[in-house]
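re: ur question from earlier - yeah i can do the single chain one, its not a big deal. heres the input i used so u can compare w yours
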Amino acid sequence: MTLVRYESAGHVATITMDRASAHNALNNALCDELREAWLRFHESDDRVAVLASSEEEYFSVGADVRDLPVNMWHAVPGLGVELDKPVIAATSGWVVGGAFVLVQMADMCVASETTRFIYPEGKIGTTAGGISSVLARMPHKIAMEFLLVGEEMSAERAYQIGFVNKVAPKGAARRARPGDGGKNRRQRAAGRSVR
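and the output i got, formated as tokens:
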């Protein structure tokens, strides 16, 4: 694999998208390698996978418009490869379009405070079927606004609506893990109201 790194330590697989020259734009090659990584995870002794990016500014800019992936759904955890082990998305920077689908299909998400989610397809009048399950992953009216208006959503906002499990400081999303005993959520809820 050249665009996706698979590293295993302590029964945790870290699957890293590493097409930094194109900000991890999802093309056929990257999608094929993600599928191979999910297959490897499925067959491995690893108990959990962390999906991450090799760069801080972009998790992924979504589908590569110069090389649209034929079967992007193959790269999506739980869709392209059936998984019975949890996947945690560790996001930072921009999470755009198809990359948002990768994150929404993960079991949990730890987002760097730099994370910005956006699904611009509504603005250009195109979409694919994978995004429809967002309606089960965030409140209906917020999901509809996100899909139809196409404006960005911050990591903090995604946390407030329950799409993100934990917001980590810049550069720390890969190392942070959900399950801090609820302190993070209670502290944030006490200091901020849902906007």
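The beta strands are 4-9, 12-17, 48-53, 58-60, 87-91, 94-96, 108-112, 116-118, 153-154, 166-168. not sure if urs matches, ping me
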